[in-house]
Amino acid sequence: MKAAQPEALPIAGGTDVMVDINFDRLRPAAIIDLTRVAELNEWGMDDDFLRIGAGVTYTRIIDELADRLPGLAMASRTVGSPQIRNRGTVGGNLGSASPAGDAHPPLLASDGLVELASTSGSRRLPVREFYVGPKRNAMRKDELIAAFLVEPAKGPQQFSKVGTRNAMVIAVCSFAVALDSERRQVGTGIGSAAPTPVAAGEAETFMEAVLDEGRLWERPAPVASSALARFGELVAAAARPIDDVRGTAAYRTHALAVLARRSFTWAWDEYRRTASA
Amino acid sequence: MRVGCTVNGGRVTADDVWEGESLLYLLRERLGLPGSKNACEQGECGSCSVYLDGTLVCACLVLAGQAEDRDLVTVEGIGSADSLHPVQTAFVEAGAVQCGFCTPGLIVATHDLLRRVPQPTTVQIREALAGNICRCTGYAKVIEAVHLAAGRMGSS
């Protein structure tokens, strides 16, 4: 269908699409209802990855996958309200590709993949290559998002978000961290503080070196506060925030450094507890 | 296009539905069910909360066509003027209703909460009703009403 009518707009939970239609900002030539495609609502293991259908709602991620994807589940809990989480999907978040989408930072931190399907087959793209501009992604017009893939957590994960209240908030900025104790990697993701969701590569490399040099994975001790501060600075430096209705660029830069420092500390404290247990 | 679905237990159909129409418009303007309120049309306020196949949703964010062959329950299906649901009675008695505009959405959302969590804590109530905006009550009476309903429904 999408190949025959590339202008057709796919709709799943409608939490983005319907707002634009209701407000007369969007008059699609055709709409494809994805909620009838049963396989989009399924998830399961695919080799080492969890393959999660694009139509799985935030509520189901929280209820069914919080043990294996704690970072994404934390982010899902901050999405909208119960009504929105019952309808909204990660597939929709990827399709809209808003820099403020809550699912993006944990997917970046866990180095996930997006599976795109078309009549010519399917391809898998790293999430880190998927966002190409504000509300723009790397999909072709004849493609639909079938699923996303992410490895079950191999260590503690955290997500934090700044907003004006606890619900119904579009992030002022957000940050996710995922520790991989097998590969000894630190993954990061920044939301709502650059034209696209972005990872903080230099911060990751820096913290991995700190943990390796201190042999901290083997002997889990607290990370020095100077290293934590530097990690926060590098995360903030990876952002390219703007002033907008939700906050200023300066505030976002400051807040990101704080979120990064705290989130990493929470994750590292959890690693230390589990490693010494 | 024609849309057919089950609403409050009965099969209904509507003709000439516009393809971009919301379920909320379908319910209010075509099916004569104005209980679900139209306020924000962007999922922010919860005034149009209904059940879609047993799941609490904002009717304004569901495309009417997505409701084809689905099962819907609106506030009209939860209680009637002659026979209020215990959640509705509790809202009246606790003074959780002022202008009343947000009340249908709050009733449906509270109904959903008590179905899943029969004896919720205040924190759980706040979390469950976070997507229902009330501009009059300040929520204190709403939360009292939910506790009142939970107590009565649990003991009956």
List keywords for this structure.
heterodimer, A: 277 residues, alpha+beta, Uridine Diphospho-n-acetylenolpyruvylglucosamine Reductase, domain 3, Enolase-like, domain 1, 2 domains, five-stranded antiparallel beta sheet, three-stranded antiparallel beta sheet, 9 helices, 22% strand, globular, B: 156 residues, Ubiquitin-like (UB roll), DNA polymerase, domain 1, 5 helices
Kindly describe this structure:
The complex is a heterodimer of chains A (277) and B (156). Helix content of chain A is 34%, strand content 22%. Chain A is α+β, with helices and mostly antiparallel strands. Chain A folds into two domains: 9-150, Uridine Diphospho-n-acetylenolpyruvylglucosamine Reductase, domain 3; 157-276, Enolase-like, domain 1 (2-Layer Sandwich). In chain A, helix 7 runs antiparallel to helix 8 (225-238) and helix 8 packs across helix 9 (249-276). Chain A starts with 8 loop residues before the first strand and ends with a helix. Chain B has 156 residues and is of the alpha+beta class. Chain B folds into two domains: 3-76, Ubiquitin-like (UB roll) (Roll); 86-155, DNA polymerase, domain 1, CATH 1.10.150. Chain B has five helices and five strands. A five-stranded mixed β-sheet of chain B has the order 2-1-5-3-4, sandwiched between helices. In chain B, strand 1 and strand 2 (10-14) form a beta hairpin. In chain B, helix 2 (86-94) crosses helix 5 (140-155). The termini of chain B are far apart. The model of chain B has no long low-confidence stretch (mean pLDDT 96). Chains A and B meet through helix 1 and helix 4 of A and strand 4 of B.
